Amino acid sequence: MDLETARQHIRQAVDRMRACSPQPVFDEWAILGRAAAGGGVLAYSGPRPEAFKRNLPADAAPLRTLTAGRQLADGDLEFAAEAAGTRYDALLKLGDATYLVFNHTGKDLAAIRAEAKWLAVQGVLFELSEKFRADPLVMEQ
């Protein structure tokens, strides 16, 4: 799939997650890739557009530690239980060297998982991951 289609799928999934509860499960998401001219950020939605790119290395640290030395397949989804604050809570491999990160800038993953809506959100995340497993994001060179 192309970048615009990926963004549409992600926006639809975020909307479905928001329908589960008036409080957002994740208030920030970004598509990251090595080929991005914008310092690795292909798309961003959230409350801190100026700080996001600047804080990217530190905020990605828990997920980098979690996935170090592992081969993730397209559609694989990982959660960083130790992430807090602006550190990313979840990572979804979208395609070759492209990833989606989700975060809630005010809650850690334990607080998110403790909410009743978490069970419904897992289904939305699973469906999103399966879309990228079946049709990975392909970036033109």
SSE blueprint and pairings:
Layout: H1 3-19, E1 28-33, E2 41-45, H2 49-59, H3 61-67, E3 77-79, E4 90-95, E5 98-103, H4 109-114, H5 118-134
Antiparallel strand pairs: 1-2, 1-5, 3-4, 4-5
Explain what this protein looks like in three dimensions.
It is globular, with a radius of gyration of 14 Å. Strands 2-1-5-4-3 form a 5-stranded antiparallel sheet, with helices on both faces. α1 packs antiparallel against α5. By secondary structure, the protein is α+β, with helices and mostly antiparallel strands. The two termini are 14 Å apart. It has one domain: Beta-Lactamase, CATH 3.30.450. Helices cover 41% and strands 18% of the residues.
What are the main properties of this structure?
141 residues; alpha+beta; Beta-Lactamase; 5-stranded antiparallel sheet; 5 helices
